[in-house]
Specification:
The complex is a heterodimer of chains A (459) and B (192).
Chain A: H1 3-16, H2 20-23, H3 32-35, E1 40-42, E2 45-58, E3 76-89, H4 92-96, E4 112-125, E5 133-144, E6 150-161, E7 176-188, E8 194-207, E9 217-230, E10 233-247, E11 263-278, E12 281-295, E13 309-325, E14 328-340, E15 346-360, E16 364-377, E17 395-408, E18 413-425, E19 429-435, E20 438-443, E21 446-458
Antiparallel strand pairs in A: 1-2, 2-3, 2-21, 3-4, 4-5, 5-6, 6-7, 7-8, 8-9, 9-10, 10-11, 11-12, 12-13, 13-14, 14-15, 15-16, 16-17, 17-18, 18-21, 19-20
Chain B: H1 2-33, H2 37-43, H3 48-78, H4 82-114, H5 118-143
The chains are: A mainly beta (459), B mainly alpha (192).
Chain lengths: 459, 192
């Protein structure tokens, strides 16, 4: 393997593992750069198909507390088979390596670039056959007039997930549909020194099972960012995000109250710096203000609780990336943010993380990702204003450790293994009605171990 | 005896001076080998038809140089480069004066040949060759006419070289990731 390919694989490796913690549950499909090999070229487009089969073990399918009295299967072996097909206009690497030609000539700045992908993932849970299901993902990114003084980016992302995310009390379906359609307008000076982007996203979050229909949400998101670049590869950045969370169903059923989720308005604005300080060390520092306003949707309606809430705090994101040697990178940082939640309307997260990635001999990729965070939720009450658990406050300490390794025999064939531990520690317990006058106590703490091993081919 | 001795000394001095004069003459000839006179002298020995052909080429070359410098002058005028216009205009004036002189000399040469006046023809030819050399000199000077650009720095253009080992990272700040697993209470199994 020559140097350029090694560097390419290194770049791939360094870019791959960043979102691993959040995305580990959806496998290697979560990162496009890992799913694409050399690819087939079709004129000005390139095609990247792939197929992967993995066997895994999940020690805690339903996020059950270790000492929980629920008599349900807690662990299971899992078969996961994923196929994907990605299509895009020719990438920069292909063009730089001299693959000119095609109908469009391929030279210079293209008038539009396109990336699209489609994938399907089959899950079979050996210890819970009824959960066998398919996940689907489709995405599109169309960039019109890239690197021009004015450009437009159109994005569309659709996903269906099926893996459990809470206790299985009525054998409910965990299928969840999410769709994010967006448009962004980019303005920049000729050399790209100063950029301004304004965008809008419309997001739909829909749960297929009626048991979670109260959480179905429409979300409108407006973004504005300004970037001022300077040498060597650094920028002063200001970004502002305004989100409107519109909960679809505000029905209050006194006979079966559900967790209360209110319409909300979320604002976050930050100012900071991002980029390289030296050739092997770069930093990200963003500090700003975040606020959320949640209103009782049915003011004056009998039974509707007075549940106006406000959130106000500092938003911060601080991180450093250090390329220790050519093929070893370490990243660490801290972020404080708040996000919408189906429990208590929102949560605030203070989290520290460390990520390590290396690639050995250009073919063996090894990564580790560890994070420790404190999550504080808004008041968890139901639509009648009653507490959902033993307390009207909730704070969790969550530890996530992830190890990932992959060996590539060729440019299109690899075997990989993943180990992840998630520990969530909290005193909070849910009260679950199990019958007239019978309430089960379900601690929200859990420990979860996942181990995966598989083979995949990709081109 | 004394007179004979003086005569001998005078003879030796005369021989020495004669030798020096001869040497200077040789040296002068050697120096002229690299100068402009030799071609004239050599050309002077050419046949009448060859002399006429060469003279015609000199006249034609003068006209070509005149047209070319005139084109350069027009271009400088379009660019409103007054410094270059002045310089080229001066060279063109000299070239045209030499060109007119060359035409006259050529006509006289033809006439001299027709009446078989060899000396006059040779003289006119010699003058034409000198004019031919002047054409070349003026052509070079016209090509060397500089314009205003030598005094103006033009629009400032900054070229930046970034160390290729600088990490080529995207400068967009990644959005803090939301929860991969939503925090949702388990559903109530039966109404309370």
């Amino acid at each position: 393997m020559d140097l350029s390919k090694r560097l390419g694989l290194l770049a791939l490796a360094l870019g791959v593992l960043v979102p691993m913690t959040a995305e580990a549950q959806v496998g290697w499909l979560s990162d496009r750069s890992r799913t694409e090999g050399p690819g087939f070229r079709l004129g000005d487009f390139e095609l990247h198909p792939g197929l992967g089969v993995e066997i895994g073990y999940d020690s805690n399918l339903y996020y059950t507390e270790d000492d929980s009295g629920f008599a349900i299967p807690r662990d299971s072996a899992i078969l996961r088979a994923a196929a994907h097909l990605n299509v895009s206009t020719r990438g920069a690497q292909r063009q730089q390596e001299g693959e000119a030609g095609g109908d469009g000539g391929g030279q210079g700045n293209p008038s539009a670039t396109f990336r699209g992908g489609l994938s399907g993932t089959f899950y079979h849970f050996f210890n819970d056959n009824s959960r066998t299901n398919m996940e689907v993902d489709a995405n599109l990114n169309l960039h019109i007039l890239p690197n021009r003084p004015f450009g437009i980016v159109i994005t569309e992302n659709f996903g269906r997930s099926v893996r459990p995310f809470t206790e299985s009390t009525i054998s409910q379906s965990y299928a969840r549909l999410q769709n994010d359609a967006g448009v962004r307008f980019d303005f920049q000076t000729d050399g790209g020194i100063f950029k301004v982007s304004a965008g809008y996203n419309f997001i739909v979050d829909y749960f297929e099972d009626n048991a979670f229909s109260y959480a179905n949400t429409l979300r409108h998101q407006l973004t504005l960012s300004e970037t001022f670049r300077f040498l060597p590869q650094t920028a002063i950045i200001h970004d502002t995000t305004f989100r409107v969370n519109d909960v679809i169903d505000h029905t209050i059923d006194p006979a079966n109250p559900t967790p209360l989720i209110n319409d909300g308005f979320l604002l976050r604005t930050r100012l900071g710096i991002n980029g390289a300080l030296t050739t092997n060390f770069s930093v990200l520092v963003m500090v700003g203000y975040a606020a959320g306003f949640y209103n009782t949707p049915l003011v004056g309606v009998p039974g509707s609780p007075d549940y106006d809430q406000e959130y106000e705090s500092i938003a911060a994101q601080v991180g450093a990336r250090w390329q220790i040697v050519e093929n070893v990178r370490l990243a660490f940082g801290y972020d404080r943010d708040f996000q919408p939640s189906y429990l208590g309307n929102f949560y605030r997260r203070d989290r520290g993380y460390i990520r390590f990635q290396t690639i050995i001999e250009g073919s063996f990729l090894l990564g580790a990702d560890v994070s420790l965070g404190y999550y504080e939720f808004g008041q968890p009450v139901d639509t009648l204003g009653d507490a959902l658990g033993t307390s009207t406050t909730r704070g969790d300490i969550r530890f996530i450790g992830n190890l990932f390794a992959e060996y590539r025999f060729t440019e299109w064939l690899g075997v990989n293994a993943t180990f992840q531990y998630t520990g969530n520690f909290t005193d909070y317990t849910y009260d679950i009605a199990a019958g007239p006058g019978v309430t089960l106590v379900d601690p929200a703490s859990y420990n979860k171990i996942e181990v995966w091993g598989g083979v995949r081919v990709f081109y | 005896m004394v007179d004979g001795r003086r005569a001998s000394i005078a003879l030796l001095v005369g021989l020495a001076l004669g030798a020096m004069g001869f040497g200077l003459a040789i040296a002068q000839d050697a120096g002229n080998e690299a100068g402009g006179e030799v071609p004239v002298r050599r050309q002077a020995n050419v046949l009448p038809q060859e002399r006429l052909d060469e003279s015609s080429r000199i006249v034609q070359r003068g006209e070509q140089i005149s047209r070319r410098v005139l084109a350069m002058l027009d271009e400088a005028r379009r660019e409103r480069d007054i410094i270059r216009v002045t310089c080229l205009n001066d060279k063109l004036t000299q070239i045209n004066a030499h060109r007119r002189s060359a035409n006259d000399r050529f006509e006289r040469l033809v006439e001299a040949d027709q009446v078989a006046d060899r000396e006059r023809a040779q003289h006119e030819y010699t003058v034409l060759t000198v004019l031919g050399q002047q054409f070349r000199v003026l052509e070079g000077e016209a090509n060397g006419c500089i314009g205003q650009d030598i005094y103006e720095t033009g629009t400032t253009r900054i070229v930046t070289d970034i160390d290729p080992s600088t990490p080529d990272e995207g400068l967009e700040v990644p959005e803090p990731d939301g929860p991969a697993v939503p925090t949702i209470p388990p559903p109530f199994s039966v109404p309370r």
